[in-house]
Amino acid sequence: MIENPLHLLMNPQSIAVVGANNIPTKMGTVQALSILKDGYKGKFFPIHPKEKKVLGSKAYASAEDLPEVPDLAMLIVPVKSVLPIIESFGKIGTKRAIIVTAGFKETGAAGQKMENELNEVARRYGMRFVGPNCLGIINSQISLNTTVFTMDKEPGLLGFASQSGTYVTQALPALRKRGIRFSKAISLGNEANINIVDALEYLGEDVQTKAIILYIEGIRDGRKFIEVARKITPHKPVLAQYVGGSVSGARAGLSHTGAMAGPDFLYNGIFKQAGIIRVDSVEDLYANGWTMATQPPLKGNRVGVMTNSGGPSTTISYICDSVGLEVPRFSEGLQKEIRKHIEPHASAANPVDLTFDVGIQKLAITIPEIMMKSGEVDAMVLHGVMMTGYMREIYPHLKEMTGNISLEEFLKFSQPVVKEAFELPRKYNMPFLISSFFDEDDCYTKGYQDSNIPVFRFPEKTAIALGCLYRYKQIKERALHKEIILPEINQLAVDIIRKAKQNKQKALNEHAAKKLLSCYGVPVTKEELASTEKEALAAAAKIGYPVALKACSWEIMHKSGKGLIALNVEDEIMLKKEFQNIQKNAGKAVPVLVQEMLKGNREFLAGMTRFAGFGACVVFGLGGIFTEIYKDTTLRTAPLADADAREMFADIRARKLLDGFRGMPEVKKEKLSQIIQAVGNVSLLHPEIAEIDLNPIIINGAKPVVADALIVLESNPKT
Amino acid sequence: MIENPLHLLMNPQSIAVVGANNIPTKMGTVQALSILKDGYKGKFFPIHPKEKKVLGSKAYASAEDLPEVPDLAMLIVPVKSVLPIIESFGKIGTKRAIIVTAGFKETGAAGQKMENELNEVARRYGMRFVGPNCLGIINSQISLNTTVFTMDKEPGLLGFASQSGTYVTQALPALRKRGIRFSKAISLGNEANINIVDALEYLGEDVQTKAIILYIEGIRDGRKFIEVARKITPHKPVLAQYVGGSVSGARAGLSHTGAMAGPDFLYNGIFKQAGIIRVDSVEDLYANGWTMATQPPLKGNRVGVMTNSGGPSTTISYICDSVGLEVPRFSEGLQKEIRKHIEPHASAANPVDLTFDVGIQKLAITIPEIMMKSGEVDAMVLHGVMMTGYMREIYPHLKEMTGNISLEEFLKFSQPVVKEAFELPRKYNMPFLISSFFDEDDCYTKGYQDSNIPVFRFPEKTAIALGCLYRYKQIKERALHKEIILPEINQLAVDIIRKAKQNKQKALNEHAAKKLLSCYGVPVTKEELASTEKEALAAAAKIGYPVALKACSWEIMHKSGKGLIALNVEDEIMLKKEFQNIQKNAGKAVPVLVQEMLKGNREFLAGMTRFAGFGACVVFGLGGIFTEIYKDTTLRTAPLADADAREMFADIRARKLLDGFRGMPEVKKEKLSQIIQAVGNVSLLHPEIAEIDLNPIIINGAKPVVADALIVLESNPKT
Questions:
Q1: What residue ranges of chain B have pLDDT lower than 50?
Q2: Is B247 in contact with A326 (Cβ distance < 8 A)?
């Protein structure tokens, strides 16, 4: 196994910085100060053409002048200087670099060329680098911070790979206030060399990192990404935000890091396949990531809610329901026990509502402990614990009454902090989250945060975070992914494609497409190709009326709405009429496919599209006329295991339609799974195929049968 | 017009408080201090049985001892004392009260009885009150605050009616940090007397209130709520959070304020009908409400994004797309003008990204002004303006370099605040929102907030808030609601119902249901009722094969899956067989409905259910086998105008199916609208009807025809 390039980059014994001087407004200086002042114990070598000393350290004129070979070079220099400087480090034997400088691929063709050259130079010297156009890295384990902001002293637990530098730096003060701390964080920039897959792999191996978050504008090596993620997610949670999947989002990302974005449904699918939990905002990325990093696994879906105010507890309960959790009504026995501690008008049923009461002991310890001990909950949410925050609030009102004492003196009247409150959550090994309107200026918000108990500023967020824990429970319970062995390539299928290509076809006709699919066991409609009316009559007699007639030519890829299809052809008279109709509407003599009419109210679709970086992706979903209406589809990359197909079945909103439904029998799911798997296999065995579209797959009784098929060929097949 | 009871309650010249003493930990004392210390200029009379003075004011032993009749009485007393005290105030002529005390309806039957008595006493004395089980009110216009927390000095613009006291009080410090200030806020408690409809009406009339937010666990007088809201929303935005629509949420709410919750889809529908924007969290309620209260209307959907970091701008762009907005690529001319002010590698296309640059002038003024002037944007979002927040961040790193000066001294090195930044947003009369990771400890966050420019802590939230403004634009563009005149009651319909009731039927049979609907112009299938095979054959001959056969008896409300329906009966032989089958499956002789078989791939549904407080509600949506699968329906209360029906058409996800679709003609929407309106009218004209279910309504060609109908009768009709 090749060592991940980030091992050395994140753990250098010595760092050379080019671009720092003694002017504190310069970005390079600010970044060098982060290295110098946040506790990093390694060596620091500033490189400066003129200065003798930079930030108190002896400066060197160039890489060649350094007294030793630094493990890491960091460049914050004008874009024109990047190449020669990297080369100079290459020459002395430095193997890792961080290139902060922007102005490469994200600016267009000229920038892309420079970026290629940069990569070429690095390759020549066996050098690996992060960037360009990034803001650096954080390794809290060795107190190394190369960003422009100040890092927390206390090492963190959350690993972050980000295609935005801002989210690793500018967000730091906001995170500090919420008690959220990175184990490692990497601003990836343009990913010319080290990319998000390397970062994900590194964070997956990193023991300090308990959960991983990813901010993504686009992934280039999608296949590798899934492979790596799939190994990590069974034992370490990964959350991702993806923002490239819209017109405006994709354009913004392109000008930001030059990322090529793909559609939302692609990323939705690959995240699911890889066991990654998608979130919708960077706030949720941080906060839910922190929850995953700090909290024990959720063992069930029952949430206990303890509060001193009804609004938040009602709100939390409502959101819990919407993410698959429940706030169960407590047993009579448990309620009785709780009632000993609360006012007669307060509710003991769960949520337990103390009503207005600032008694911390009951709210934060006694009753939560009764709830956790009971065996009736799997997680706890607590709202309303507060002390100095509350005291600050009422101080202006009480100032006069207390002889105009200062706020500091007034705060001394606060009840002493009950430290047990911060220890309780660990005692019963279940997730424990806090909802509070108070920032860290309240001693309880601060105390919980300092004990790695997440505090959410608004109640809904606690339930959403628990929802992520619940989702991760399901991910861990999935069967482990196993290597998929592809079937043998089928010679008849090869011949069908070769013939079509010789014929300069851009697609197979429906009949040929179905023949090809049949080679791999896909069930298709009984059908015969007829060039004449006579042949058509004979075919229909053989298949049995009613039949369907369809113009069959590769040039007619989309037949509907053009008078090229006749359904429910009941007898010879009708057949003759419709056969002529089709010829007329086609405008020339066209072969007609005579096909059995399948009975079945349920129609699905399966298909394949290739996406750059991700290769062949298989889509499954609702077919027929509702395809465009509900866009109820789900995607996975090929090849697929039966388990993948089963997850796809569970993934669509119309999943109930696959079960026994309204008197219809349960669909033979193993057969449907085989079709979906075959679509994936065919795509991998025959790279000449660009696209597959099977719609509808009619459920005939319980059995899925492909009733229409389109196979489009690649103009430039990838092998 | 009766004056809204809150006018006097919110604007009292004098307040008597019962339940305050001189112990600062007592809730009543804390609330009295809020009245005394937040600037209220009216008179304050504490009532106390023993104390001579309370909080420095002369105390009175009882209401009878007061030197004058106070406008408002506020009670924070044990539950047993509430009734006699209210009675004593009634006797002296006090007309308004706030009852903070809990322990009424929310505790069960005994509490409900007490609450009824309380209302009875109030009625006797013409007294109106807020509560019980509430936390009081805020009227920032007269600096009146009766809650337990401290109110902002500066009057606000946002009106709040809340079924949670916490959201009016405990949230205040969090809101203050975000610059969000209430005009008026009302904690409604159990709504024994003054309810959320009164509060909504009051806030609608209040000139100080520029936008209204509602926190809702359940609405009792739903009809009145819609009526009142419908008058307000064309000229003042109303946002609502509803949390009663889940099992856990409903139970939590019931024990909180005794609110009876209804299902989510009911509230979704009535919010839409009333022009209320629904939000999913209390954070969005506050933040988006504040945006609506402070920002000018949005005139189009084009958003300009200005930033110094790519992550947030990509994220904002992505979310904009998802809420119907766009971040358009700027014209070449505009880009050229912007390029004069930015680095060559930075993007001028929109988002405009300065990249790392702390130059406030360009980021906050020069370039945003160019964008706003251009006519190419309708709203602005700015991310990354910061100064003292940033200085605080880098201080630990620069402390030594700057001779170990204090933070305060260091902050003096900050560039002076450019005040113009806070004036610019108002200059071009378009929404202007800020995204920043910095709290109000940054001078720009504070400056914007103090100028009523909303600052969001995470970038996504700006786009979501703009989405609310965009939604409000659509609401204002709706046709104004007009009084709907019901048709005359139809005598045949009356007879059908009377006959069924004489017959002790719980429902009409399908044939009778369709006859009744026909009386009001609803198109139904051609059909005849047949008691014998012979009659059935005659009917089929008349209607024309193929036909459908259905067992027709009011006792068989749900026929599917029981062998009681035969579709596509093609000839006499098949009819005879199926007729016998139905008799056999029914287990006894049953009349059979012989019905034309309609052709049509598109199936919709319409129906009616009565909800407590809301009366007859009409549902429209996708019908047929997908009804349960996609639950793609929308609801409005009856009666419906054509405009309401058209909004329902636009509301379902399958809306495209109503247009020309895949070669099918556009549905005759005026006919479908008539069906939906008729369902509403029938419900109002015939209160004996409990439920109506028309499913499917088949689109035959372009024409909607009701193919199946169920009308359930009320056991205890409401009139």
A1: 718-719
A2: yes
This complex has an ipTM of: 0.94
- What is the distance in angstroms between the Cα of A153 and the nearest Cα belonging to chain B? 12
**Cα–Cα nearest to A487, from A442, A459, A522:** A522
Spatial distance between the Cα atoms of A670 and A543, rounded to a whole number of angstroms = 27
Q: Do B459 and A315 touch (CB under 8 A)?
A: no
Can you tell me the distance from the alpha carbon of B627 to that of B697, in angstroms, rounded to the nearest whole number?
12
Distance CA A263, CA A250 (A): 9
Note the Cα B639 to chain centre separation in Å.
20
**Could you report the per-residue pLDDT of A344-387, keeping only the tens digit for each?**
778 899 999 887 665 789 999 999 999 999 999 999 999 999 99
Q: Are A397 and B30 within 8 A, CB to CB? A: yes
Report CA B2 to chain centroid distance, whole Å: 26
Q: What is the DSSP letter of B514?
A: H
Nearest-CB residue to B255 (from A257, A349, A661) = A349
Q: Touching check for A571 and chain B: CB below 8 Å?
A: no
Q: How far is CA B665 from the centre of its chain?
A: 36
Are A314 and B244 within 8 A, CB to CB? Answer: yes
Nearest Cα residue in chain B from A359: B25
Strand order in the sheet with B303-307: B352-353, B303-307, B379-383, B432-435, B455-456
Determine contact: A318 vs chain B, CB below 8 A.
Answer: yes
Q: Which domains does chain A have, with CATH numbers?
A: 5-292 (3.40.50.261), 296-476 (3.40.50.261), 482-525+598-719 (3.30.470.20), 526-597 (3.30.1490.20)
Say how far apart CA A418 and CA A416 lie, in whole Å: 6
Cβ contacts of B436 within 8 Å, gap of 6 or more = B383, B384, B385, B386, B389, B442, B444, B445, B455, B456, B457
Task: Determine the Cα–Cα distance for residues A641 and B716; give it in Å rounded to an integer.
Answer: 58
C-beta neighbour count of A418 within 10 angstroms: 18
Lowest-confidence segment of A198-207, A403-412, B454-463 by average pLDDT:
A403-412
Q: Are B194 and B6 in contact (CB under 8 A)?
A: yes
Residue of chain B with shortest Cα separation from A663:
B561
Contact B707, B560 (CB under 8 A): no
Task: Tell me which of A282 and A716 has the higher pLDDT.
Answer: A282
Mean pLDDT of chain A: 93
Return the H-helix or E-strand segment holding A692: strand A689-700
Structure tokens at B560: 């599917």
Digit-coded pLDDT (tens) for A102-142 = 999 988 889 999 999 999 999 999 999 999 999 999 999 99
Where residue B242 falls (left for φ over 0; alpha for ψ -120 to 50; beta otherwise) is beta
The pTM assigned to this predicted structure is 0.95
A303 forms beta bridges with A379
Tell me the three-class secondary structure of A387-406, residue by residue: CHHHHHHHHHHHCCCCCCCC
For the segment A547-571, what is each residue's pLDDT rounded down to a tens digit?
999 999 988 877 777 888 999 999 9
At A230-246, the pLDDT tens digits run 999 999 999 999 998 88
Number of CB atoms found within 10 A of residue A592's CB? 29
Residue-level pLDDT at B719:
42
pLDDT, tens digit (0-9, with 9 covering 90-100), for B572-611 = 999 999 999 999 998 889 999 999 999 888 999 999 999 9
Ramachandran area for residue B684 (φ above 0: left; ψ -120 to 50: alpha; else beta): alpha
Which of B27, B170, B461 has the CB atom closest to A437's CB atom?
B170
Q: How far apart are the first and last CA of chain B?
A: 26
Q: How far apart are CA A285 and CA A200, in angstroms?
A: 15
Mean pLDDT confidence for A267-292: 97
Phi-psi region of B211 (alpha: psi -120 to 50; beta: other; left: phi over 0): beta
Q: Which of B13, B7, B483 shows the shortest CA–CA distance to B198? A: B7
